Amino acid sequence: MARRFFVAGNWKMNNTIEQSVNLVNSLQKEMRDMHKVDIMVAPPFTAIKSVYDALSSSSIQVGAQDVFWEESGAYTGEVSPMMLKDAGCKWAIIGHSERRQYFGETDDTVNRKMKAALAAGLKAIVCVGETLEERDAGKAFDVLDRQVAGALAGLGKEDMDKIVIAYEPVWAIGTGRNATPQQADEAHAKIRARVGELFGSKTPETMRVLYGGSMKPANALELLKCENVDGGLIGGASLKTAEFAAIIRAAIEAS
Predict the structure, then answer these.
(1) Domain boundaries, the chain
(2) Which terminal CB of the chain, N or C, has fewer other CB atoms within 10 Å?
């Protein structure tokens, strides 16, 4: 079964509200055929509503870079799933490698966030991936098995059509060292196989797995032509209209 390509832009801690709106406005002018693939942008929390309003007539969807697992309460600095929905979000990125590295995200907290996001009606992009030390030690696939099972624990087969998995080889993000298309495809195939073990052989056929290891215009098409790569979770390149548009065009070409 053919899977529709998905290109998601994670803006991280960049852009004011004005800069965010200008970016999506320029992207809309650049891309006339963007409806041919699924596109999402994840601005900083402060700009979500303004970006959503700016995209009101566009097929581009809006996501959040993180989410908390409670609906409300004494959790200073956190943002609940319902708050994100109220601001216009359709998606939440959960378990990004930077959240794991800098802010103590664990497989357990990723799972709690997944359940809360889905219960509130959000869709989720859950991130998994190994560090350089883990890859060099031959533990990459063990890490993927653990993180996929941990993130999806307690979820049902019916939840999987609301979930996208992003493979982030941590060693290839912002380091100048990229995974080869073969390495990316092997990792994506491993993720897909693990999902099949958990939810049955049919589920991986429709579930999308994105590559999140520094996809750029120069390597996008080669990666997107891989059998198990269904799009990209884009960091730095999503902050530049021309580069993000070029990746979207590569996805259209590969589809």
Answers:
(1) 6-254
(2) N
